[in-house]
Amino acid sequence: MTKAATDNDRTVAEHPEPGADLPAESLVTALAGIGPGAAEKLKRLGIGTVRDLILHLPFRYEDRTRSVPLSELAVGEEQLVTGQVQTSRIVQGRRRALLTTIGDGHGVLNVRLFHFGARQRQILQSGGWMRCFGEVRAGPQGLEMVHPEYRLHAEEPPAAAPELTPVYRVTQGLVSRRLAMWVQAALTRCDPAAFSVNAQLAAGNGSAAGAQSANRSGETGDFAALFDAVRFLHAPTPNAEAMAAARARIILDELVGHYLVMKRRREWARAAAAVPLPPRRQLGRLLLRQLGFRLTRAQARVTAEVLNDMAGGKPMMRLLQGDVGAGKTVVAAFAAVRAAEHDCQVALMAPTEILAEQHFETLSEWLSPLGIGVGLLTGRQTAAERRARRNAVRDGDDLVAVGTHALFQAGVEFHDLGLAIIDEQHRFGVHQRLLLRDRRTDERMPHQLVMTATPIPRTLTMALYADMDVSTIDELPPGRKPVKTRVASLARRGEVLRQVRRACAAGRQAYWVCTLIEADEEDPRQAAETTFQGLSAEAQDLRFGLAHGRLPANEKAAVMASFKAGDIDVLVATTVVEVGVDVPNATCMVIANAERLGLAQLHQLRGRVGRGGTQSVCVLLYEPPLSAVARERLRLLRMSGDGFAIAEKDLELRGPGEMLGTRQTGEQTFKLADLSADRALVPKAVRVGDRLLAEDEETVHRVVATWARGEVEYASV
Ligand code: ADP
Ligand code: MG
Predict the structure, then answer these.
(1) Range(s) for CATH 2.40.50.140 in the chain?
(2) Of 4, 229, 351, 621, which has the fewest Cβ atoms less than 10 A away?
(3) CA Rg value for the chain
């Protein structure tokens, strides 16, 4: 509900202004007017400190800088108007309203108010002035505003404020205006020295010019001081150039900040010690011999890189990239075997139950013959099972422990953790990785191997994973034929089902993947179950299985096992099959409502077929009409099987937040930077970051403190 501005126009100026004395790390409650209740609301927005509040930038602005002549109003726009009251009367429509006509000598406007008191009525009847901000509509008697924000004046009001009005992301029980007041209070009270002042961080290229025009809250120029850029964006004058400069200044600071945090983390790891794991018992050779295939050249190369890292006394921090099906698991197995040679434990963490179970099976098959104990620990096991596994891990009986994040939950102690392997990194937040460092009782850190099938463009790897060395498997195992991809409208579903039948008649198997609009909007079970029942009735000659995330763990495992054994022809599933499922005999995949999924996810899904030597097919079924973006996605997928090319495109179409899955984990990597729009700044951020590291320790410290958030401990390496 909009309120008359006259009633609640309290400003921070009411409070005495003690000067810029507040450290940026102070809790928001240090500011006048923010009590525990308000602090709780701010916390929901991720705002805990004065710094957080200052960095909470508006997501849009309202232009109330200019009072628009009533003859120039534009229907549908939000505008500021000023006029003198001509008539004002109560009208009885569907709702009782006060209908006031104001004029400014050029034109007239009707203002319809539903909430009004005696005082408002009195001013309105006495020929006073009214200033309103709201959407202009075409009403029954000419243009009107329906319950705009308004303010009454006895005299003609002065010119409007020259700054744009910020609109902030808020939460229940908090309005943007109030947040704006707090932000202004924070800007007044906070010591600007907490933020970086460095001309190299000015986004404009001439850093000398930037240094000159900066330091003041520049109307133009490159903003050498981050604080000035931020302050400007909270209440900017409508100057597009200056606003762009301020944004660019902040984005560069943020990108540099992220890079520096990563670098710090890396230095920190370099300074730490790890258990050296050089070659010892030649178990790797045994593994190689019993694999049943030869390593590709790429696999051999990255395996050597990994083992080489592990041999030293420094913790390995390595990212292993490789497209779906490139064969990352076997590399992980070699690393695990090496740790086992030293009786050091290995933790392999997977993002889903299915994937954890799959890894458990694969590793048991490969490692048990070598006398290495493998255990599984997931959240869905019974308490007794879990306790047994926990004990085995604690006593060191399970040398290799495979699991979901349950593996790193409280209560799981490792006897001697030497290596942590994290599969499908994009599903875990960066922060989850950090939990690892507390897993040893001595000062040493476990080695870390992070595997991802989301190919990250190189420019981004530099910045996003500056804390890691990167190995890439850039070659698929031999004999793979690219998956034939078709795009078909739902109208051709019958034809598609016939194709599935043909594949199954030839002894192959198929996936039928059901997508969901929103994870919580629709019961995932429902979509898959309905499809399962429908297909089972339509094609009684085929054996169907059903897998979705809400199935009890043992049932899900049973279904997956019979699919693997070939007892099920068609597995109807939600996107739980997205990662990790490995059934080479499955050569056909149908993805229903493929238009709902992003490129990377579709590519991942498709990677479940084409794992054996047989030609595989993937049908992307869509429900028309297709949006332009969805059409483009499906087209790209049909044309390309190359994960890297697809990732580049995905970045353009969706932005990295979704691509890297940070949105799924609820972790927001960047506040303002958008890696798809701002990626051109990434190489510059790396350059500037390196230079600061070499020359300007103080700025490094400030930038890290500004952006590191929960990781401030790294700031003090
Ligand atoms: P991803 O990189 O997607 O995790 P996986 O490790 O699951 O891929 O491997 C995919 C499939 O390819 C598995 O069935 C695996 O056994 C097989 N595979 C891996 N490396 C080779 C190889 N060098 N030759 C033949 N098959 C291989
Ligand atoms: Mg894998």
Answers:
(1) 66-160
(2) 4
(3) 31
Query: For residue 286, what are its two tokens?
Result: 């045994």
CA distances from 143 to 109, 232, 557 (A): 6, 35, 65
Q: In 368-429, which ranges are continuous DSSP H helix?
A: 383-395
Report the distance separating Cα 508 and Cα 586, nearest Å.
Answer: 6
CATH of region 484-640, choose from 3.10.310.40, 3.30.1130.10, 3.20.20.140, 3.40.50.300: 3.40.50.300
pLDDT in the model for residue 553: 73
* Residue 143, φ and ψ in degrees, nearest 5: -70, 145
Architecture of the domain defined by 66-160: Beta Barrel (2.40)
Q: Which atom of ligand 1 is nearest to the CA of 296?
A: 23
Probe target for ligand 1 pocket from 324, 360, 422, 582, with the most ligand atoms within 8 Å of CB: 582
User: Considering the entire predicted model, what is its pTM?
Assistant: 0.71
Integer Cα distance of 31 and 648 in angstroms: 44
Distance 288 CA to ligand 1 centre (A): 13
Q: Looking at the domain 283-311+327-452, which fold is it?
A: Rossmann fold (3.40.50)
Q: What is the DSSP string of 566-584?
A: T--SEEEE-GGGSSS---T
What stretch(es) of the chain map to CATH 3.40.50.300?
A: 283-311+327-452, 484-640
Give the residue with greater pLDDT, 296 vs 125: 296
Q: What are phi and psi of 245, to 5 degrees?
A: -65, -40
Residues with CB under 6 A from ligand 1: 293-296, 299, 322, 324-330, 453, 477, 582, 584, 611
Q: Whose CA is nearest to atom 5 of ligand 1?
A: 327
Ligand 1, pocket-test mutation among 289, 328, 330, most atoms within 8 A of CB: 330
293 Cα–ligand 1 center, Å: 9
Which class for 462: exposed (0-12), middle (13-18), buried (19 or more C-beta within 10 A)? middle
Nearest to 221 by CA among 240, 246, 196, 201: 246
The band of 522, judged by pLDDT with boundaries at 50, 70 and 90, is low
Q: Are 490 and 623 in contact (CB under 8 A)?
A: yes
Q: How far apart are the first and last CA of the chain?
A: 50
Q: pLDDT digits over 650-696, tens only?
A: 767 655 444 443 333 334 567 788 776 777 788 899 999 999 999 99
The separation between CA 252 and the C-alpha centre of its own chain, rounded to angstroms, equals: 19
Which helix (H) or strand (E) is 651 found in, with range? helix 643-654
CA distances 128 to 5, 78, 307, Å, are 16, 23, 82
DSSP 3-state helix, strand, coil percentages of the chain (rounded to 5)?
A: 45, 20, 40
C-alpha 337/C-alpha 399 separation (Å) is 10
Atom of ligand 1 nearest to the CA of 329: 6
Catalogue the E-assigned strands of 272-416. Answer: 317-322, 345-349, 374-377, 400-403
Alpha-carbon dihedral angle through residues 476, 479, 480, 485, given to the nearest 10 degrees: 140
| Spatial separation of the C-alpha atoms in residues 393 and 407, rounded to whole Å | 10
